[in-house]
């Protein structure tokens, strides 16, 4: 019974890896290289869901009219859109949205009284004094004593309206009012609607448009055009934060690679040429990262997929997954070398690949099913992360079988030196001495 010779086919596997990397580099060379998200360029992202049907074209026209022609609008569901714009401006001393107080925080001091309007005490032709009553047993429909006596024509604030007092002793709608007395203090009490006139609702103070932040202006305009909507997600990043994000992302990937390389050298220190294991794992890692970057360059050109911090998170996950798969194969190689130290490395590597192949494929296929399910059912906010995992798992599974371990054999047998220095003659090609 013949055994599958994966190591014998390494040249074809190397060609497959080289072709994928070259294709990725070509995609990256075609502008735009990658489509950066707001975390790397500064700007604002808003996920909006409208109650009424709204088209992408109508929403784009609205943002253009609001001086945001650069807005990129992506439909994420029925009347749901992801809108990316430049950073929204808020003038000094201005505001952008009204923040509701937390429901579980008790107010400090007396609770504020909501003024419903103002009313003039006394009938229209009344003269003399008007009596404001107290409530009997805290029931405003039954008057008791005198809370205040004020001249007719006094203007009072209305803080409560009780139309349910028709059947009570009051015999009609009752206002709860607050009035300034002649003694200079405020008094509160109750009075029949029939004993007042000239009710006026409070006038809302106009807000200076110069103090409105752009988000408030945009929300008002969209509500006037399309009706009510819900902001499902809102994020804004300044240029300072975006520069820090780029720097930190680059550091994260670089440091991860260095620490991985150091760990593999330490873990395989007992093996001959331990540095080769680390170098081959990092080469496989770079191979996987290059393919992911090339795929995202293609996705950005075709589907406007952006590179954001979720992409960086996914990339670090792919780096860990790629190295993990390579270490599993390397560990099995170490066991085989320990059991058969006299066997050629190519045989030990081939045996290790066959022993771990089923495990690698089963793990990767299971993970891919989960990622595909999340891509179909999950939200747009984790789309970049899932796409990185999808491409990275495929590339990482291939590199752990067809690249990392294969490079060890090519290095051991001197093939790397011949490929990297093709102008040098091999010892068996030296001309015979005359």
List its traits:
alpha+beta; 11 strands; 4-stranded antiparallel β-sheet; 10 helices; 434 residues; Multidrug efflux transporter AcrB transmembrane fold; 5-stranded antiparallel β-sheet; SH3 type barrels; elongated
**C-alpha termini separation:** 48 Å
DSSP E strands, number? 11
CATH topology of the largest domain: Multidrug efflux transporter AcrB transmembrane fold
- Tally the structural domains: 3
Q: Note the overall shape.
A: elongated
Helix content range: 40-55%
Strand content: 15-25%
Q: Residue ranges: pLDDT <50 for 5 or more in a row?
A: 93-103
Could you say which structural class the secondary elements and strand pairing correspond to?
Answer: alpha+beta
- From the coordinates shown, what is the CATH architecture of the largest domain? Up-down Bundle
Radius of gyration: 37 Å
Overall description:
- The protein is of the alpha+beta class and 434 residues long.
- It contains 10 helices and 11 strands.
- It has 3 domains: 8-37 and 236-421, Multidrug efflux transporter AcrB transmembrane fold; 40-96 and 208-221; 117-200, SH3 type barrels (Roll).
- The chain has helices spanning 10-29, 38-41, 56-65, 214-226, 239-267, 274-303, 309-339, 345-377, 383-412, 415-420, and strands at 43-50, 72-77, 80-85, 117-121, 129-136, 139-151, 155-162, 174-180, 186-192, 196-200, 229-237.
- A 5-stranded antiparallel β-sheet has the order 9-8-7-4-10, with no helix packed on it. A 4-stranded antiparallel β-sheet has the order 2-3-1-11.
- The longest helix has 33 residues, at 345-377.
- The protein is elongated, with a radius of gyration of 37 Å.
